[in-house]
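Memo subject: From amino acid sequence to discrete backbone structure tokens
Keywords: amino acid chain, backbone geometry, structure tokens, three-dimensional fold.
Body of memo: The sequence and its backbone structure tokens, given next.
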Amino acid sequence: MKLISINLARAQDLPTLEGETVKSGICKRSVVGPQEVKPLGLAGDEQADLSVHGGLSKALYAYPLEHYPFWQTVRAQAKAADWEQPLPHGAMGENLSLTGLLEKDVWIGDVLRFADCELRVSEPRFPCFKFNAVMGFNKAVKLMGESAWCGFYLAVKTPGQLTPGEHFELLPGPREVSITEVFRAKIRGSKRS
């Protein structure tokens, strides 16, 4: 398992597909070199709506790069803006672009142990209309709901530093409920509401 990219953003205006503008920190971009991890996340990263992003239990957001080819393909089919350009790391709004660890293999309470930092898995990411905006088409949220390729939030267990390219290990937690189970249950519940 490997951390391929660390991605940061300041909150900025994001044009929605409906022609409005909202504040968002979803437009993350890769940074170079070691990055400091504090209890509330990466130094220099921002979230615009702290009621649904950020805080101690959602300090960082991780996303598997294995899903990027799918998103590239559906963006091309939808003829989204810049669809012919490869998606840059951070395009899902993630702080950590990972390989070798998919949602189906991650459980609430598992720990990602890096050389100088430990991060505890807290919950799946539930997409909102801002995800449609950054993907460039109206069905992105629906597709994430159907695939359960949602990524996961992390709490900072041990602050320290993270470096792009470093390997990490997964330390199993209590293994009571997986990221995919929590995500699918909430999506099913929201469809009934």
